[in-house]
Automatic annotation (TrEMBL):
<keyword id="KW-0029">Amino-acid transport</keyword>
<keyword id="KW-0547">Nucleotide-binding</keyword>
<dbReference type="Pfam" id="PF00005">
    <property type="entry name" value="ABC_tran"/>
</dbReference>
<feature type="domain" description="ABC transporter">
    <location>
        <begin position="2"/>
        <end position="225"/>
    </location>
</feature>
<protein>
    <submittedName>
        <fullName>Branched-chain amino acid ABC transporter ATP-binding protein</fullName>
    </submittedName>
</protein>
<dbReference type="GO" id="GO:0015807">
    <property type="term" value="P:L-amino acid transport"/>
</dbReference>
<dbReference type="InterPro" id="IPR030660">
    <property type="entry name" value="ABC_branched_ATPase_LivF/BraG"/>
</dbReference>
<keyword id="KW-0813">Transport</keyword>
<dbReference type="InterPro" id="IPR003593">
    <property type="entry name" value="AAA+_ATPase"/>
</dbReference>
<comment type="similarity">
    <text>Belongs to the ABC transporter superfamily.</text>
</comment>
<dbReference type="GO" id="GO:0005524">
    <property type="term" value="F:ATP binding"/>
</dbReference>
<dbReference type="InterPro" id="IPR052156">
    <property type="entry name" value="BCAA_Transport_ATP-bd_LivF"/>
</dbReference>
<keyword id="KW-0067">ATP-binding</keyword>
<dbReference type="InterPro" id="IPR003439">
    <property type="entry name" value="ABC_transporter-like_ATP-bd"/>
</dbReference>
<dbReference type="GO" id="GO:0016887">
    <property type="term" value="F:ATP hydrolysis activity"/>
</dbReference>
<dbReference type="InterPro" id="IPR027417">
    <property type="entry name" value="P-loop_NTPase"/>
</dbReference>
<dbReference type="GO" id="GO:0015658">
    <property type="term" value="F:branched-chain amino acid transmembrane transporter activity"/>
</dbReference>
Amino acid sequence: MLSIEDVQVFYGNIRALEGVSLHVKQGEIVTLIGANGAGKSTLLKTVSGLLKPKKGRVLLEGKEIGGKAAQLIVKKGISHVPEGRRVFANMTVEENLQLGAYLRKDKEGLKQDYEKVYSLFPRLLERLKQQAGTLSGGEQQMLAMGRALMAKPRLLLLDEPSMGLAPLLVKTIFRIIEEINQAGTTILLVEQNAHLALSIAQRAYVMETGRIVLSGTSDELTSSD
Ligand code: ADP
Ligand code: ADP
């Protein structure tokens, strides 16, 4: 479904990615693990169109991806949940979800998709009229994911969804990620906690200073560490 071929990305003069290639098949959960600063977020931003590679290609179903992030959601069905649970703080929970829905190309099945998001995240349903900025950290993460799902992505990019959350909540979020995947959404997951990531992903890529240094099935990587 997704192919990244020999990608090189710079921030000014700083090279953040070098010779990165990666593949995600339809229906998979693939995780990108590695230390802080390895280039994981940069890679997700390159897939979602926020950054342009200087060299190399990003292909979705064989077609090169280009354009702005919002266009990619509409045209290609890629939703990106960035690090740090970005919600529109002054809008209600409901309005945040509507923004996600606004981005989708296909308005069909909208009602069922709201129901689906509410069943995945019952806490959001209880707080539809609440300002998103007053939600707890975990609830904001859920809202950011719910909003991304309302855009009806085929590929969901998740950047450190567990960051800063209590262990019990992390478990809940990861169970929900598995449910989203089982309902048919392909997922590329950035996660610092390798153990956690390998527990739900089929395959993993390990990054170090802008390169992929190891890849394999989660079973292979779990037994090698
Ligand atoms: P990770 O997600 O693995 O923690 P990042 O992709 O955030 O890593 O960062 C990769 C490298 O790019 C790091 O060296 C980081 O300092 C640098 N970097 C990230 N964002 C920027 C930016 N906006 N401007 C300059 N350098 C950046
Ligand atoms: P945490 O313990 O995760 O930091 P908070 O103490 O911020 O969470 O919030 C606890 C609960 O109270 C959350 O469910 C949050 O949605 C709710 N809450 C926080 N602020 C408000 C508010 N101004 N109005 C209504 N509910 C709120």
